Q: What sequence folds into this?
């Protein structure tokens, strides 16, 4: 899609979604309310998927850097109005799902949320660098979303069972542990973020490897 076409599409999407602000939700009941909620959630998922794709492009082109931003994640934090460091989620998910086409397709269809994609991408990133295993695990996790309506927490807790199903004797995982630390999948999945709270403290979130 050409640059101008992308901007036109994004602008049209904003105008279309803006209509939600005028809905008299107090008058919506029963099945209509339930179905409308599902539709709104899908709109959110589609927007988040687009932001992940945008984050990937911002990283590749440095477009926000040219405007004086220190990084794409800082720019994304600013435009989305999230807490400090919130933009890093879009950048991280873009990186971790770059080689998981099924996850990207599910995001583009609004079938998985940013939170679900983050868990799938983050968990898969800890696996050995075996494309077939990684894609298979991602596929199984997507199946859980489709068949069991698994949310992000369900996916996170169910990850070990999915890996055991595909690597029952632990052959691939043991092989990864035998590698130098710098070559392990878990090593490359490391991240650490700090988010200031309103009490003078800092929330710390991250993932490390042995």
A:
């Amino acid at each position: 899609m050409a640059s101008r076409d992308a901007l036109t599409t994004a602008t049209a999407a904003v105008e279309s979604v803006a209509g939600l602000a005028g809905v008299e939700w107090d008058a919506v009941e029963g099945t209509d309310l339930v179905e409308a909620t599902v539709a709104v959630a899908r709109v959110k998922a589609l927007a988040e998927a687009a932001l992940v794709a945008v984050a990937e492009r911002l990283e590749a082109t440095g477009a926000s850097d040219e405007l004086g931003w220190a990084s794409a994640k800082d720019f994304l934090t600013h435009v989305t109005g999230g807490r400090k460091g919130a933009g890093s989620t879009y950048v991280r998910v873009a990186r971790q799902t770059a080689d998981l086409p099924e996850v990207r397709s599910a995001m583009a269809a609004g079938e998985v949320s940013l939170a679900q994609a983050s868990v799938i991408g983050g968990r898969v990133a800890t696996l050995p660098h075996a494309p077939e295993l990684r894609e298979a695990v991602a596929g199984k996790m997507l199946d859980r979303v489709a068949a069991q309506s698994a949310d992000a927490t369900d996916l996170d807790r169910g990850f070990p069972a999915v890996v055991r199903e595909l690597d029952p004797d632990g052959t691939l995982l043991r092989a990864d542990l035998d590698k130098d630390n710098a070559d392990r999948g878990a090593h490359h999945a490391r991240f650490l973020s700090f988010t200031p709270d309103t009490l003078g403290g800092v929330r710390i979130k991250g993932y490390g490897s042995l």
User: Anything to note?
Assistant: The first helix runs from residue 3 to 17. The CA atoms of residues 133 and 166 lie 8 Å apart. The longest strand covers residues 191-196.
